Amino acid sequence: VSHWTEVGHLTNALENQSVLIRGRAQTIRAVGNKMSFVVVRERGFTVQCVVTVQPDTVSRQMVKYVAGLSRESIIDVEGVVSVPSVEIKGTTQQVEVQVRKLYCVSRAAVLPINIEDAARSDVEIEKALQAGETLVRVNQDTRLNNRVLDLRTPANQGIFRIQSQVGNIFRQFLISEGFFEIHSPKLIAGSSEGGAAVFKLNYKGQEACLAQSPQLHKQMAICGDFGRIFEIGPVFRAEDSFTHRHLCEFTGLDVEMEIKRHYSEVMDVVGPLFVAMFDSLNKNCAKELEAVARQYPFQPLKYLPETLRLTFEEGVQMLKEAGVEVDPFGDLNTETERKLGQLVLEKYGTEFYILHRYPLAVRPFYTMPCHDNPAYSNSFDVFIRGEEIISGGQRVHVPELLTERAQALGIDVKTISTYMDSFRYGAPPHGGFGVGLERVVMLFCGLNNIRKTSLFPRDPLRLAP
Ligand code: ATP
Ligand code: AMO
């Protein structure tokens, strides 16, 4: 009797046993008219199946039928596991299956991209081209246009399992720290972050927009005495330019919490949360990380058990000493952020750190100014490999100051009046932060484009698939 076995589980231990596998015919190769080889792939694992004419099981027609299968068709294979005397190249599993029966479950049409080509690293492509192989370099747009096929590569199988683990640890860690999960509305009356990057829509005749973040409602939940909360949900930004790290829709991991004395209480959550996450990824997603690194080589993230905190002023000073002049009360740009990341790595040996006490002028209206110097604010950004993954800080919970700050930044307070009002009936001091899920995965894995870590990315020109 054959048992359903996963391709990834086919090892020497199953030698001479009869197994039943289901997977895709990744490659099909006929040798004369008596023998065919099919490499069967199941979720990133591959095994070679050998079809040879056998007196009572495999006919000549069967061998011919197999040779005519189309790539990526889903097939069921029943056969016996064998261990060849020579090393098998080009498959993940080091055994073969001697086929007795083979059925096509679902036939694939002619493919617009070749999965094997799409799975190669740049170095492998160069080598293959030098060896005179013909292959097609699959560019990003072609991948995204054919995303369902692109997702079948081992690297992509890894990326989205890693993404799942990031969300999983975020949730588990926060629950263990006394937070609970909320779900805030995504259809709202006004912009949540200020600024123009908002998708407007018609809400039954009333002007509305898609939430740029759960900012307003997560703070309102704190005013509703929810104490410590988090949310995992979609965030919409009408970005109008193309960068490697901005999407029009991404997944936000948001936290909001009461604080007693100082915004450092929020940073006290961020540091251990991310150290626990990185530890877990390295431990529990080793295979997935390896699959990503095989196609997109990267060095493991360097981070410290105790997360480094620097003030914005210290950051500006480090840049100055390195000959990079930046406005001490302006924002860092992509280039200066990266440069600071390099300097921090050289000095402190970490690629993960918190930069806090940002100039007030570059933060959103709801940010609490510093008590000792209102040119600065009780806020922070968090960086991986010199790029921002998190923004956060303490919020203004005093209604008069909130109105003043909103007006100073030209916010139309009428559109967020219910938010403004929620601070009038007693509001506890509080703070929180927002994380971009796709950015965390992109930067942890040292990937060069956020579209690689978004399942079906949305950018200014892409609304499909
Ligand atoms: P957020 O603004 O949501 O906190 P962010 O990573 O976009 O996240 P910003 O502070 O807006 O952070 O931007 C930091 C730098 O990134 C900017 O100074 C700018 O150089 C660059 N940048 C931000 N948005 C864009 C964009 N839409 N197009 C090009 N560059 C951008
Ligand atoms: P911010 O606007 O910085 O802060 O967003 C928080 C985090 O979300 C990610 N992010 C993005 N990811 C992909 N595409 C985008 N267009 C994009 N924009 C932002 C980044 C960023 O660090 N309400 C505050 C958070 C808070 O203070 O709680 C906020 O939205 O990783």
UniProtKB/TrEMBL annotation:
Q: Name the coiled-coil region(s).
A: none
**Under the GO molecular function aspect, what terms does this record hold?**
aspartate-tRNA ligase activity; ATP binding; RNA binding
Q: Where does the sequence pass through the membrane?
A: none
Q: Where found, per UniProt? A: Cytoplasm
Instruction: Say where the protein is mainly found.
Output: cytoplasm
Q: Pfam families, alphabetically?
A: tRNA-synt_2
Reaction(s) the record says it catalyses:
tRNA(Asp) + L-aspartate + ATP = L-aspartyl-tRNA(Asp) + AMP + diphosphate
PROSITE patterns named among the record's database cross-references: AA_TRNA_LIGASE_II (PS50862)
Annotated family:
Belongs to the class-II aminoacyl-tRNA synthetase family. Type 2 subfamily.
This one is known as aspartate--tRNA ligase
UniProt organism field: Malus domestica
Q: What is the lineage of its organism?
A: Eukaryota, Viridiplantae, Streptophyta, Embryophyta, Tracheophyta
